[in-house]
Amino acid sequence: MGLALEVVMHGGKRWAFQVASFRGIPIRIHVSLLLVLPLLAVVFGGVFRQSAQAAGIQPELMGGPVFLWGLGVAVGLFASVLVHELAHVLYALRTGGEVRSVTLMIVGGVSEISEMPRRHRDEVLMALAGPVTSIGLSALLFVALVLLPQTRSFAPPFFLFYLASLNLILGLFNLVPAFPMDGGRILRGLLAERMGLVRATRVSAFIGKVFAVLFLAVGLFSFNIMLAAIGVFIFMGADSESRQVLLRSVLEKLQVEQLMTPRFHGLEADTPLEEALVQLRHERRLALPLTQEDRPIGWVVLGDVLAVPEAQRSGRTVREFLKPAVTVAPGEDAWSAVRRMVEAQPPLLLVLEQGRLVGTLDGNDINAGLAVQLARAQRGGERSPRWRQERPA
Ligand SMILES: [Zn+2]
């Protein structure tokens, strides 16, 4: 089983429901897991039957229906995956990381780690915590097997042996350096010490993709659907993570003022809706900042204005639809601005300097500005942002 890919996957969340929480972090189960559970129970149960036959065990000494023992191994396996994930989570939390959720899926566990530990060494140890825990769990199960009282029935000791073996495989497989699997993260962390995060990620992602193609090919040729699926997940994960690291490295070097749309006045809070609509359409914006005696207080969204029947728009003001401001300073780096956008989901950020509005920042500003900055970086040369020259005294 190739489990425990720490891929940031937003699509996966849609089909998952929460079953528990750990230190405030939701633990979710993906529906794909429930679909595959009976299938795994049958497959694992079949292994019980074949092994008993090979050992010449009589059916009455089996120790219960094989399907139930198979189901037990399947549930035990996913519990083991959860323990593996929680080891990562605990280490991440201890070293200043942030974890959004843990989701158990058909290909294994996914910990959505929104903020990685800052030091590369901690990332290496965080990645190592999962496989080490799995191998430790395997050792514990083998010890339990040795300590198990002698019994004539076949299934209980075989259950322990089987689960111990699966945990050992889980631990070892995750050490394969196929980024973003644990082994790949360890590799990336070690490389990052020498060549920096961006290059280390690029190299590890390339190696990860080579493994992904290999897993996919072997999986398809040997009809191992699980391995093939893991190949696809690794490929997508390697791609999206290396892109995210690149984006972050560029945005961290940019300041908000280099990307924002300069703006020194918002709509006054007592502007009638009719007038606000004209302004929103004229500027082709989905939201505009609101000010009161020139002090920014929030924003108004196009959708809210449109929801008011046309006949009432002249009698009501934008103040009714005021949303509290999420603000950013012009000197802040663009990556922290983007993180604020992802967390609070505002339509735009208000850029304030000494309490006064100097601009707005939304997704379009970031995309457009990023393209310009990348082109400018290739040409070289820096200029003072133009808004400082245009700003009223
Ligand atoms: Zn892991």
Summarize the structure.
It contains 13 helices and twelve strands. It is α/β, with parallel strands linked by helices. Strands 1-2-3-4 form a four-stranded mixed β-sheet.
Tell me what the structure shows.
The protein has 393 residues and is α/β, with parallel strands linked by helices. The protein folds into two domains: 249 residues, no CATH class; 134 residues, CBS-domain (Roll), CATH 3.10.580. The chain is 56% helix and 16% strand. The chain has 13 helices and twelve strands. The protein has a four-stranded mixed β-sheet with strand order 1-2-3-4. A four-stranded mixed β-sheet has the order 5-12-11-10. Helix 9 links the parallel strand 6 and strand 7. Helix 1 crosses helix 2, helix 2 packs antiparallel against helix 3 and helix 3 packs antiparallel against helix 4. The radius of gyration is 28 Å and the shape is elongated. The N terminus is likely disordered. Zinc ion binds next to helix 2.
Layout of helices and strands, plus pairs?
Layout: E1 16-22, E2 25-30, H1 31-54, H2 66-94, E3 98-105, E4 108-115, H3 120-147, H4 155-173, H5 182-195, H6 197-221, H7 225-253, H8 256-259, E5 261-262, E6 267-268, H9 273-283, E7 287-292, E8 295-301, H10 302-306, E9 323-324, E10 327-328, H11 334-344, E11 349-353, E12 356-361, H12 363-379, H13 387-390
Helix pairs in contact: 1-2, 2-3, 2-4, 3-4, 3-5, 5-6, 6-7
The structure holds zinc ion.
